[in-house]
Amino acid sequence: MQHLMTRLAGMRTKLASEKILLFLDGDGTLVPFSGAVHRLLAKLTRLHGVDLAFVSGRSLADLESEVNLKRVFYAGHHGLEVRGPNGDRLSSPGNVLRRGTAFLAPQACGKGAAVCRILTAVKRFRGPNVQCFYLGEDPTAEEAFCELGSNAVTVKVSQTGSEKTAARYFLRNVHDVFAFLQKLYQCRVEKDDAL
């Protein structure tokens, strides 16, 4: 895996794509949210052609409370519950059974299935050419990395970047993630200023 920040110059086209869907796996990627991270995410939600989606093992209510942003997608319980920016559910809530610390969900759930539902909704609104980015750190992110495939920029948040993963890039920690988000914002603002 290559460190994403060393590859950004070659990704300028992807960063400035007309339509971007940025998936962020909340825990381990951005949590704990600092004020600076929250302000930057809020600015990203206001940019033309940028959609954000937060994916987590937490319940939808916990995720929405932690992130606390409007005009974004939320996928809780590893994709069992998915809500769009206007508050509409993209999947039925179903029943979540809790056994110890594990949640048992129907087969059509998971981060890969949630990514597909969200991407389908975004394409319906924005059109077919959407550049996806997915940043995740836990083993459940692997399903999303695989589902999005080679056209997406898939990023594992990992100290070494040496573990086996379907992600193509890595960032070391939340500080690297913040630096990437700043670069993405900068590219988008420069693109919009050029129009």
Helix content: 25-40%
**Broad shape:** globular
The number of E-state strands comes to 10
SS summary, helix count: 7
How much strand content do the residues show?
Answer: 15-25%
CATH topology: Rossmann fold
What can you tell me about this protein's structure?
With 195 residues, this protein is of the alpha/beta class. The protein has one domain: HAD superfamily/HAD-like (Rossmann fold). It is built from 7 helices and 10 strands. The chain has helices at 12-15, 26-29, 35-45, 60-67, 111-126, 141-148, 174-194; strands at 2-3, 20-25, 50-55, 73-76, 81-83, 97-99, 102-104, 131-136, 153-157, 169-171. It has an 8-stranded mixed β-sheet, sandwiched between helices. A two-stranded antiparallel ribbon has the order 6-7. Helix 3 (35-45) runs parallel beside helix 7 (174-194) and helix 5 packs across helix 6 (141-148). The longest helix has 21 residues, at 174-194. The protein is globular. The N and C termini lie far apart (35 Å). Residues 92-107 have low confidence and may be disordered.
Short description:
The chain has 195 residues and is an alpha/beta fold. It is built from seven helices and ten strands. The chain has one domain (14-172, 182-194): Rossmann fold (3-Layer(aba) Sandwich), CATH 3.40.50.
